[in-house]
Amino acid sequence: MVYLDTVNSKFEITSTSDYPLPGGNAAVYLELDYKINQAMQIGLFVIKPNITTDQIPLITLNPSANWNKIYIQMGYVVSSYNSSTKFKVYFGAVKDPAVLKPAFYLDNIKVVHF
Q1: Which residues pair with 11 in a beta bridge?
Q2: Average of per-residue pLDDT across 34-58
Q3: What are phi and psi of 102, to 5 degrees?
Q4: Residue 98: pLDDT over 90
Q5: Residue 82 belongs to what domain range?
Q6: What does DSSP assign to residue 6?
Q7: How many independent structural domains does the chain possess?
Q8: HSE (CB half, 13 Å, CA atoms) of 78?
Q9: Residue whose C-alpha is closest to residue 59's, from 36, 84, 86
Q10: What CA–CA distance (Å, rounded) separates 91 from 104?
Q11: What CATH number is associated with residue 24?
């Protein structure tokens, strides 16, 4: 869970390890459960062989008062970086001034590929 306020008005967290994901249009998904009261972005950090990293936004989740499960298709992004074999998932948001106490609950986060 992450809470934002006027002092801590933004967050960005990444997976602790990088994932070796298959290219070639393989099916690659991020699966998670979430309950949030303001918008939040999810994306990938692409770690390239020349030690540079690209940040690729995948989706912006809208607020939901109930728990939801989502599957985010990442295969098309992974496949477009042929020379990269390492990826990290990130989550982030900037406090919306209209939301008094932004709260982000995430659970059961998995990267799945076949």
Answers
A1: 93
A2: 92
A3: -60, 135
A4: yes
A5: 2-113
A6: S
A7: 1
A8: 25
A9: 36
A10: 10
A11: 2.60.120.200
